[in-house]
Structures are given as C-alpha cells and as structure tokens.
Automatic annotation (TrEMBL):
Entry-linked PANTHER family: 3-OXOACYL-(ACYL-CARRIER-PROTEIN) REDUCTASE, NADPH-DEPENDENT REDUCTASE BACG
Family: Belongs to the short-chain dehydrogenases/reductases (SDR) family.
Protein name: SDR family oxidoreductase
Organism annotation: Ottowia flava
Xref: Pfam families: adh_short_C2
InterPro entries with a match to the protein in the record: NAD(P)-bd_dom_sf, SDR, SDR_fam
Signal peptide residue numbers: none
Amino acid sequence: MDLGIAGKWALVGGASKGLGRGCAEALAAEGVNVVLVARGAEALAKTTAEIQAAHPKVQVQMVAVDITTAEGRAVVFAHHADFDIVVTNAGGPPPGAFRDWSRDDWIKAVDANMLTPIDLIKTTIDGMIARGFGRIVNITSSAVKAPIDILGLSNGARSGLTGFVAGVARNPEIAAKGVTINNLLPGKFDTDRLAGTMVGAAKKTGKSIDEIRALQAGQIPAKRFGTAAEFGAVCAFLCSQQASYLTGQNILLDGGAYPGTY
C-alpha cells in the first residue's frame, strides 16, 4: 500500500533507538524526509547513517539535543522549521514509590512527557493547518489505560497529555483542516528500556534475565514482545493519507495484554 506521504517532512523524537527509531525507519521507507532527534550524538549519528544508507532517495538528518528543553527545541526548529509529521517521544520517568517522589520529580516528569509534546504541537500545528495536511503521533504508554503502580510519574504525566489531545484533536479548526492527532500506546516491546526493567526485576527476585523474559512474555496473549518495526509500521499508517479520518484516538499495541473491552 502506498501511504501517500512521500516527500513529506517528519520530526521524530527519541529516534536513535527503540520505538522512535522504528518510526523513523518506517517513515523513511515511505519516502518521507526525516529529522531524527535524540540526546546521544554517537548513537544518533549511527542510526542516521544506517537509515540514510537503506533509503538513499530521502533526506535523513539529525539534531543531537534534548528535545524536552526549550533550548533543544529551538535548535531543532532552527535546523528545520516546517514539518508535516511530528512523532513526539521522550524516555519515561523512572519507576519508584510515590512517597519518594518530590515536587521536582513530578515537574520533571510532566515537563518531559506532557508539556514537551504540547509545545511541539503548538509550534508545528499552524503550519500544518495552512498546508492542509498534518499528522501528529504521540508515543505514550499502555499505562495510560492500565496504570502500573511503580510508574506513577509516567501514569500521571502521560494521562495529562492524553486528556489534552482528546480535546485539541477534535477542535474543528484542526480536524477539518486535514490535521490529525493521535496517541500510540506501547505495551512491552523488545527495547533497551524493557531490558533495563528486567535487570531490576532479576536483582529483586533473584531470577535470571532469561527467566524474567520468559515469565513476562508468557503473560502476554501473543506470547512475545513487540518489535520496533511493528510499532513503526503502525505509526507510519497513522501518518498516512488513508488515516485522515482517524483522530483523537489512543491506539494500544500490547499483544492483547490489556484485558478490558474498552
């Protein structure tokens, strides 16, 4: 299927690895020019070179900054001002116990996982409206639908973003102008972040990493973890011409782990 987005420009956050990279690769494969953003310059340069080599007909550029800061975002938009597609993505806050989280911890979580995506939407959406096309995809978390107690910082910040998107995506000044805003909610994907949580679980339980992997995968109806390529393919579809009637939605990708009907 031709998604009809060749030649568009996309901004992808957290793009050096994991789900962000999966989205960047999928968009580049559709002929989209991509600007990759991440903090780690070395990993980002490697990813940029690999995607460019795989898709030589598109422009693959990188900006190594922290997009959760105003200074970082200013550098990104000085590099390239107008985007047709924006994939917001930033690492989630650390797990822990709610009694241990200070006000500063909460402010940092909300700033990175709620206010940063909102600012990216504000900065890019008017240009999208003027051009009559825009796709904004926010990578949030399955915890928005099924909160995880040790991820309270993420639960709170991402739920705030979800509520904001539910309203703004339905604004006729946006929805009637060819601009959609949706959220992608990943469950357990085989990424570095998941591997990090397994190390912690192994230390806590005394089980091996392999045992933890098998146990967690076994709890998913699909009996496996997702891949970044699968995630990227869904992201690319949300950015397509065919998805123009899909907006304000929370798309859950978790292998069936969420047990609810709604």
